[in-house]
Amino acid sequence: MQSFEWGEFQEAVGRKVFRYAVLERGKILAVSSAVEHKLPLGLKYWYLPRGPIIAGAEGAEQSAVLDFFLKYLKIEAKAEGAIFVRMDPAAEKSEREIWDKLDLKNVAGSVQPKDTLVLDLEKSEEELLSEMKPKTRYNIRLAEKKSVEVFWKGLDENNFEEFWKLIGETSARDGIVSHNKDYYRKMLETLGERGDLKCRLYFAKYEDLYIAANIVLLFGDYAVYLHGASSNSFRNLMAPYLLQWRQIRDAKSAAAATYDFWGITVEGENPKWAGITRFKKGFGGREVSYVGVYDLPVNKFLYEMYVRFRKA
Do 182 and 274 fall within a single domain? Predict the structure, then answer.
């Protein structure tokens, strides 16, 4: 989400994107894309999805780079009329102390998933299968035995409409709010297979019927299962299990070292995600928790008004 291509996608859905870097004698120490989001009454804020990214700095030096970067971002955001800058960095909880020392406000809740599950794709397929729960392995074999077909393909109007129909069924069934139709279309149109950030639309079919679909992103040695949907029909065929296994194998073949399931819930936190979490945990992997969301107030008066309005 800090890639140049993700910024292009955000621009395609009508948002301004500002890109920054901190350099020392030509060496990049930090980078970030800031996406402008609108608020009521003509106000706006900047959002750094999974940013900023700090490279080549640790401990006290990392804190110094962050402090310098944030002071500069505050000046830039103020010049553009943003009332605050929001960020949810890709920093694990062990780094929380660094972020808590900065002039930021820790915010409850999350924008991107606060807790997730990642697979180590440097393991062999046999190792990955052996670390799954027995029921997950059984369901993969069941879907194969029932001749469920899984594949990915480029965007066309027919398969996009099938994907959107599955999104609608999933949202209604599980009570999960989806993005609007144009958001998914722009993502698939803008990213595709052309740049460093690749976006693939995967499907599972049974007897010419689309019964599950997922969007997967590939960037460098990183793969992420970003969005998923499934039909209310033929749920006994366990198509989502086989679909995930195909995505994992494809990511491994594409030289990805990590496969991110992009979100689980900690027990008792979000009942809506309990079933999805059980499904994902069946594949094994390591649980990862991030530091959370931080705000950098730019206009303190308007920021406090915004916070009070949200609470109300």
Answer: yes
Local structure of residue 236 (DSSP, 8 states): G
88 by Cβ neighbours in 10 Å (0-12 / 13-18 / 19+) ranks as buried
For 41, left (φ over 0), alpha (ψ -120 to 50), or beta?
A: left
Is pTM, for the whole model, over 0.70?
yes
DSSP single-letter state for residue 235: G
> What pLDDT does residue 268 have?
66
CATH number, residue 70: 3.40.630.30
Same domain, 252 and 275: yes
Q: What is the mean pLDDT of residues 208-235?
A: 96
* Domain assignment of residue 75, given as a range: 4-114+290-311
Beta strand 222-230 with 17-24 is: unpaired
According to DSSP, the β-strands at 222-230 and 149-153 are unpaired
Distance (Å, rounded) from C-alpha 64 to C-alpha 30?
11
Question: How long, in residues, is the chain?
Answer: 312
Query: Is the domain of 234 the same as that of 251?
Result: yes
Per-residue DSSP letters for 90-106? S-BGGGHHHHHTSS-EE
Asked if 12 and 190 count as a contact pair (C-beta separation under 8 A), the reply is yes
Let me know whether 168 and 276 are in one domain. Answer: yes
DSSP H or E run through 273: none
Domain count, the chain: 2
Query: What is the per-residue pLDDT across 6-26, written as a single tens digit (0 to 9) for each?
Result: 999 999 999 999 999 999 998
Specify whether 284 is located in the same domain as 152: yes
- Helix, strand, or coil here: 126? helix
Of the listed ranges 39-43, 185-189, 272-276, 301-305, the least confidently predicted one is 272-276
